[in-house]
Amino acid sequence: MKMSFLLSVALGIAGVVMVSVLWMILAGMGVFDQVNGLVGQIIQDGENTFDIMDFLGFGRVVSLAIVVGVIDVILMTALATLAAFLYNVSSSLVGGLQLTLTDD
Predict the structure, then answer these.
(1) Does residue 64 sit within a domain?
(2) What does the pLDDT look like over 19-52, one tens digit per residue?
């Protein structure tokens, strides 16, 4: 359980960093500005301008990535612990694999 918790926390942190870097790369390439221009041409509403940053702002995206990471940590820890328990039970019933390490 401890090992699966630590690995899932590391994966959660890596996921949040990955989402942050991806968002910064897309913002640096001007993808969000191009989407704003394209949707602005399609909608053509003079009073209400469309801005994708209302929906995909950096804070909102990172906070959603953190929430997904926390849920991922909880689920991965529980599933890995359950899988380890089931493996131990089945290997004790069937015999498992015996390995002996000796020093010559």
Answers:
(1) yes
(2) 999 999 999 999 988 988 888 888 866 677 778 8
Regarding pTM above 0.85, the answer is: no
How many domains, in total, are found in the chain?
A: 1
- Residue 97 lies inside a defined structural domain of this protein: no
Task: State residue 104's pLDDT score.
Answer: 64
For 101, what's the count of Cα atoms within 13 Å in the CB-facing half-sphere?
A: 0
Residue 94: inside a domain, yes or no? Answer: no
Within 13 Å of residue 34, how many CA atoms lie on the same side as its CB? 6
Phi-psi region of 102 (alpha: psi -120 to 50; beta: other; left: phi over 0): beta
Query: Among residues 104, 7, 5, 14, which one has the least CA distance to residue 68?
Result: 14
Helix (H) or strand (E) holding 78: helix 58-94
**Domain carrying residue 82:** 2-86
Contacts of 82 (CB under 8 A, 6+ apart): none
Is residue 74 situated within a structural domain? Answer: yes
